[in-house]
Amino acid sequence: MELYEYNELQSRLDAIAEFDDMSDDAMLAALVEQLRPYLRNVIGSTIGKGGEGKTTLATNLAYMLAEEQANRDSQGKSALPVLYMEIDANGDGRTDLGLDATVFNDHGKALRDAITHDGPLKVVKDVRPFLDATISGRHCSDIAGRINKLADTHAIAAYLLLALLLAQISHLYRWIVLDFSPGDKAIQRAGLAASTHLVSPIHNTDNAALRGLSTVTRLIRANRRLNPEAQLCAIAFLGFRKVKGEPTTELTNVRAKIEKLLTDAGMDPGLILDEYVRDARSIATLCRNHGRPAREFALAATGQLRDANGELVPRPRDENGRYVDPQSSVNLADDYSNLARGVITRVRQRNAELREKQMQGAS
């Protein structure tokens, strides 16, 4: 791993300097239209409620997408890295990737300044093969306030700062996985302005989880001026029981509730992925405690993971000192692999539709 700085970026603050409450809508639309083609590889993980697993989903998705690029590279095919970016004061993503105790952990200061003050974007390269990451943390709690302050002068154009940042580096990455908090509307608006494809996890069966999903769909509609292409492309269930590989009535019941919610909102119930992640709380907790995504943790549990020097990594143990059950680890990893394939299939279909629409508009 190494820290890399993107220093030669055009000013994001200059790009919004001319905007205010009296700005012509056509001027904002022109800027948005210019940005959109550069952001079609941005996948946002979010939901309007905490505790649903958005960060776990995002880190595992980023890891699986990076593994795909590493496999392509090993076959002599073209490949680009994947970038994981979390905008959250809690910073659980850095924990999931084992970055907490590294020298790169600045608790989100550089990321905050890159988004709001035209600072250089600092990225930890090669967190895993073909996976880069930014560092989040307590300093990210300042982002919302700074964007809102800029919005006092530059109106809604201020919420394009993240999009303006990512548009300048998107060509260097095959995918950018953006993990943004449900807790603040400024962060939501900035994340929705930058993302083209949105994935929402559902972990709980209570009505609050359904309201969280409803919040996302409402915010997407409310932010059309900032991003006419943002769309929820997948809803993923996390942490539901499987019996002999099949879902239980708990999942089928909550699925029916969400299908009705989507139908009532005029949306496609087919957004719900058939693939889902089983309830494996003890393994999932150990994955986070060891700083490893599910697939990597499974490799360690089965004695197949090697370090940078080619040495086998010791098999992980639970809190009682016992070796982690390899099969349970593999089952969880397989669920995330299947889920990632389901998500990326939807994303590629949407990108094909957007390109066709763009070509039709040009003609």
Report the C-alpha radius of gyration, rounded: 20 Å
The tally of helices reads: 13
Overall, the morphology is globular
Low-confidence stretches: none
| Helical amount | 40-55%
Determine the CATH superfamily of the domain at 2-14 and 40-279: P-loop containing nucleotide triphosphate hydrolases
What portion of residues belong to β-strands? 5-15%
Assign the CATH class of the domain at 2-14 and 40-279. Answer: Alpha Beta
Along the chain, the helix and strand elements come as: EHHEHEHHEEHHEHEHEEEHEHHH
Strands in their spatial order, largest beta sheet: 1-4-5-3-6-2-7-8-11
Query: What is the distance, rounded to the nearest whole angstrom, between the alpha carbons of the first and last residues?
Result: 46 Å
Instruction: Predict the CATH topology of the domain at 2-14 and 40-279.
Output: Rossmann fold
According to DSSP, the number of beta strands is: 11
Biggest β-sheet strands, sense, barrel:
9 strands, mixed
Description:
With 363 residues, the chain is α/β, with parallel strands linked by helices. It has a domain at 2-14 and 40-279: Rossmann fold (3-Layer(aba) Sandwich), CATH 3.40.50.300. It is built from 13 helices and eleven strands. The strands form two sheets. A nine-stranded mixed beta sheet has the order 1-4-5-3-6-2-7-8-11, sandwiched between helices.
Task: Describe this structure in a few short sentences.
This is AAA domain-containing protein. This protein is α/β, with parallel strands linked by helices and 363 residues long. It contains 13 helices and eleven strands.
SSE map:
Blueprint: E1 2-6, H1 12-16, H2 25-35, E2 42-45, H3 54-74, E3 82-87, H4 92-96, H5 109-116, E4 121-128, E5 131-133, H6 143-154, H7 161-167, E6 175-180, H8 185-194, E7 197-202, H9 207-222, E8 231-240, E9 242-243, E10 246-247, H10 249-264, E11 277-278, H11 281-290, H12 294-301, H13 326-362
Parallel strand pairs: 2-6, 2-7, 3-5, 3-6, 7-8, 8-11
Antiparallel strand pairs: 1-4, 4-5, 9-10
